[in-house]
Amino acid sequence: MRIAEPPVSGIIFDFDGVMADTIPKHEEFRSALAADFPGMNPGHAGKNAITELRALGFSNEKIEEYLRGWQECEVAAKIKIFPGMNELLSALNQKGVFCGALTNRGPRPHNLRLFKDCGLELQHLNFFVLHKEGVLPSLVRGHESCIYDKYSDKYYCLTPYCKPDPLAIMPVYRLLSRLPGFPESLYYAGDSKLDLKFTKNVGIRFIGTLSGNVNDPDEWLEAGLDELNGDIIVGNIAEISQMDFRTG
C-alpha cells in the first residue's frame, strides 16, 4: 500500500475531472460552441473561459452568450461526482486530513447550484476557492474574502487569480500555512498539466488523476510529476482512500 511522505495534513481538490466527471462532456461542449467563437481552444484544459474569451477580444455580450450556452449544456448533461468521492472526503475527515477545493470556476449562480446538485457533500470541505475577476487583491492577501450561497449553504472564498498563478491560493494561504509540515504535507489533486504547474508554482505536492484531461501515467511524468519527491498518480480520485496516508 502506497504511503505518502511526509505525513499528509491537507488535500486540495480540483472540481472538474477530479471530484466531478465532466471532462468528456466538456470536450463535446467546447466543440459544439467553438464554431461561433473562433480561436477558442476546444481543449483549454483547466483554463478560465472568461479570461480566455476576453484575451481573444470577445465582447462582454459574446462572453455571456458563450457562458449561457455552456451552462445549458451542463444542465442538460446532469453532471455528477465520481463514485466514491463523498466516501473519500468523509474518510479523510475522520483521519484528520484537512480538505478543501480550489477551481478556476467562478461564483456564477449556475456553478453554485452545480456544486450541490452534482451530489457533492460540501460539508466535508473546509474551504472552497473560486475565481472572480475584479476582487481587490488586498481583500485576499492573508485572509479570506468570502460569499455565502444560501442554496448550497456554503461559504466560498474568492480570488482574482487563476491557476496556475500561485496567488490563486492566497485566500486560504494563512489557514493552510498553519498545517503541520506545511508546505510538504499539503497536496493538490488535479487532472491537467495546468494543475501540476500550479502546484510547482505554489511549492506543494501533487496527486495526478487519470480520470480527466491526462489519462496516461507517462504523460504526467513527462510533464514533470515527480514521484521521487512525493507526487502521486492515481487512476481515479477514489483510489486515495486505499492509500495509507499518515497524518501528523
Explain what this protein looks like in three dimensions.
The longest helix has 18 residues. A hairpin with a 4-residue loop joins β4 and β5. This protein folds into 2 domains: 176 residues, Rossmann fold (3-Layer(aba) Sandwich); 55 residues. About 3% of the residues have low confidence. The radius of gyration is 17 Å and the shape is globular. 37% of the residues are buried. Helix content is 34%, strand content 15%. The chain is of the alpha/beta class and 248 residues long. α1 packs across α3. It has an 8-stranded mixed sheet.
Topology diagram in text:
Blueprint: E1 10-13, H1 23-34, H2 49-55, H3 60-77, H4 85-94, E2 98-102, H5 109-117, E3 127-131, H6 137-140, E4 146-149, E5 154-159, H7 170-177, E6 186-190, H8 193-202, E7 205-209, H9 217-223, E8 232-234
Parallel strand pairs: 1-2, 1-6, 2-3, 3-5, 6-7, 7-8
Antiparallel strand pairs: 4-5
